[in-house]
Amino acid sequence: MADQIAVIGGVDTHTDFHQAAVIDTTGRHLATAPFPTTPDGYRRLLEWMRLHGDVLAVGVEGTGAYGSELARFLRVNEVSVVDVDRPDRKARRANGKSDPVDAYAAATAVLSGRAHGRPKTRDGIVEAIRSLRVVRRSAIKSRTQTINQIRTLIISAPAGVRERLRGLPTYQLIAQLARSRPGTDLTDPTCAVRTALRRLARRYQHLTEEIAEADAELDPLVAQAAPGLVDLTGVGTETAAQLLITAGDNPDRLKSEASFAHLCGAAPISASSGRTNRHRLNRGGDRQANHALHTIALVRMRYDPRTRLYVARRTAEGMSKKDIFRCLKRFIAREVYKHLTSMNIPRPHLLQAT
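Above: the chain's sequence. Below: its structure in token form.
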């Protein structure tokens, strides 16, 4: 009977539907079926899996993207969810590529132990920080693009325009262009470029206001989520927010500070051979988190006396700048992990079972 066996589910996630599969504890394929990405579809998916037996766990691809809501639904309904990476290219070449194949592969990865990671819960204050930070980052990117466009237009502008603007610092340049009166004859190249520069300058000002509004929203949230983290030397709201996002609302899913360092791409990779005993940089992991650690290390190298003494000592020992950065980021990751796991991150918006 179906209720007498244990089964494992696998889900290949997509925008409009999820392909689900069920296997038993010996790896035998039992069934596969698609379900829409709606609340009713999630309910039907879970009921369908339970028809085949007692669901031990469900492996879900893309728990941080297409499968995020499904992962929330399963977790609220007390189903163990395992985050599954997509199969590597070698496995795809050997087994082919289709939605049922990928769904079975997700379930098999859970059964074999290849996949064992706990997904982020995405139901607390850190998820709120992540959403707001998406807007801030895009505004910063657009503002950088805008000032680059302004300076490019100035380079190719007529001499009468270029000479008045050349060499001005950014804040003066934007203020002068935003209040300029370019004229109305757009058939004149000089008038046209002045009009374009004024519009770009006002766009720059609008984006600056948007970034300031995002900062005003993020500062208290980050301080509430991680008051001890932002008090660390070199850690500001931006870097603290990124490290919180990397760890998620449930940092306890990280087994050790070494796993957090590996997640941030700060864990050293052995590069020894023969008589050489050394480590190299880890170019994997979350690169945004690695950039946050790099920024903290830069600030400490400039303003923290202990870090400056450490850098001087390691330089005298013959260590390269890259290796010094690697060691500093590894130490910072250890320090950050202790604060992340010692704090009770607020999670006020827990989902209700449906």
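Residues 348-354 have pLDDT under 50 and may be disordered.
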